Amino acid sequence: MEPTTQAGPEAAQAQAEAEAAVSRRAMTVFSPADEERRRGVRRMKLTATGLLLFVAVVYVLAKWAEHRGAGAWAGYVAAATEAGMVGALADWFAVTALFRHPLGLPIPHTAIIPTKKDQLGISLGEFVGENFLSEDVVRLRLRAVGIGSRLGAWLAHPEHADRVTAELATALRGALTVLRDSDVQAVVGEAITRRAGAQEIGPGLGKMLEKIVADGGHRRVVDLVVTRAHDWLVLHGDSVMDAVQGGAPGWTPKFVDRKVGERVYKELLRFVTEMRDMPSHPARGALDRFLTDFASDLQSDSDTRARVERLKGEVLGRGEVQDLIASAWTAVRSMIVAAAEDEHSELRLRVRASLLSLGARMAVDPKAQGKVDRWVEGAAVYVVTTYRKEITSLITDTVASWDAEHTTRKIEAHIGRDLQFIRINGTVVGSLAGLLIYTVSRVLGA
Question: Which keywords accompany this UniProt record (predicted)?
Fold first, then answer.
């Protein structure tokens, strides 16, 4: 058992390492779509930087014109472009600080994504757990979907019912193929034996026998037995007489033994014949009384019930009985597999009809829809509340396994283009703000 104990953790660790390697490889490989995004980011960076250079050139020209006495307009342009440069530089610093240290300087609170990657993963996992995996959110969302009515309408179509039936048949065949016969036979045999051993069968047998006798059901069995006994005696009369003669004492004459054998055979044949032909034969009545008394003893007599229990234990303990119980699974499995493979089998036809009936009822019955909705809600809530930590840890562990540099590049490829608009907007808004401030100061100064 020791190797099995060690194999579990080692297999789990190997699987976890394989999943982490796949995750890291996904973050270090840039797909064609990622490369196209990176080219888009570079184009937007050039645009934002070009706008910064443009306002810088305009600022220089405006200051030069102001010093040359070009007029008041030069001061307004210089103020606007100066503020635009400040806004552009500030936003460049802010955007760059998300992904790396600006100008390579280790300024505090910069390169946020690569340095805070793990904390971001933890925060993201907590955010998902609190806002997406809460019981109220799950119930509200599933209730809005109306799974019961949609599923009913979908199942009501024959082609959908056929598809579900085929999928169920495939799944059933697969499950029965995977299961080992020896394991199932052991489980079935143990379950039947345990259940039969735990439940006393005497009273039940007594009630059943009492009803059979009361209804006269046993008489057909008696008729069959005495008829077969009569036919056997007719065919094997010599064997019966030889058996009687063989049991006689050695000192008796042979003709006496033969006469006794013939007499015994004739009386036995007469008794069986009369019992066969006379429904009111005394032996039949005696048998009825015996069965009635035995049925009563099975229900009330402790000694009889104890003897039946001992006999039951002996029968269940025999190897032949255990083999019979175990072989029942093989027969049942073969029958189910054959029925699942046959499209026209009674099993598949009944499953298809049941699915159609269920779909039609669910499509129009609010109670059936409510039951399905509540079941789905309960199952989903159980999963998210029970395994919320495992689900969120998948996020945090996956993010923690990513390489910081490649993660930064990939995130920048996805959102960097939009972030460059912040630089452009900063330049434009800064210019407008600078122009407004300069204008207000000139008006108030006048």
Answer: Membrane, Transmembrane, Transmembrane helix
CA 396 distance to own-chain centroid: 25
Tell me, yes or no, whether 357 lies in a domain: no
* Helical ranges in 342-403 per DSSP H: 346-364, 366-386, 388-401
Report the alpha-carbon angle 98-102-108, nearest 5.
70
Give the amino acid at 241. Answer: M
Residues 254 and 223 in one domain: yes
Q: Is the pTM of this model over 0.70?
A: no
Neighbours of 200 (CB within 10 A): 13
Interatomic CA distance for residues 288 and 215, integer angstroms: 11
Same domain? 408 vs 307: no
Give me the phi and psi of 52, to 5 degrees please.
-65, -45
Token duo for residue 389? 């930590």
> Is 179 strand, coil or helix?
coil
Are 201 and 236 members of one domain? yes
> With 0-12 CB in 10 A as exposed, 13-18 as middle and 19+ as buried, what is 254?
exposed
Is the pLDDT score of 365 beyond 70? yes
Give the model's pLDDT for residue 137: 83
Q: Whole-angstrom Cα distance, residue 160 to residue 162?
A: 5
Q: Is residue 84 included in any domain, yes or no?
A: yes
The two structure tokens encoding residue 436: 């407004």
Distance CA 381, CA 153 (A): 24
Q: Are residues 294 and 217 in the same domain?
A: yes
Co-location of 25 and 100 in the same domain: no
Same domain, 9 and 44: no
Domain of 55 in residue numbering reads as 31-115+403-445
Residue 219 confidence (pLDDT) above 80: yes
Question: Which residues does 435 contact at the CB level (< 8 Å), separation at least 6?
Answer: 76, 79, 80, 83
Q: What is the pLDDT of residues 174-188, one digit of tens each?
A: 887 777 767 776 776
pLDDT tens readout for residues 227-278: 998 888 888 888 877 776 666 566 666 666 677 778 888 888 888 898 888 8
Using CA atoms, how far apart are residues 131 and 247, in angstroms rounded to an integer?
95
C-alpha Rg value of the chain to the nearest Å? 46
Q: Are 419 and 409 in a shared domain?
A: yes
Choice between 81 and 133, residue whose per-residue pLDDT is larger: 81
Say if 389 falls within a structural domain.
no
Q: Kindly tell me if the per-residue pLDDT of 101 is higher than 80.
A: yes
64 part of a folded domain? yes
Number of domains in the chain: 3
Does 112 score more than 50 pLDDT? yes
Token couple for 177: 């193929």
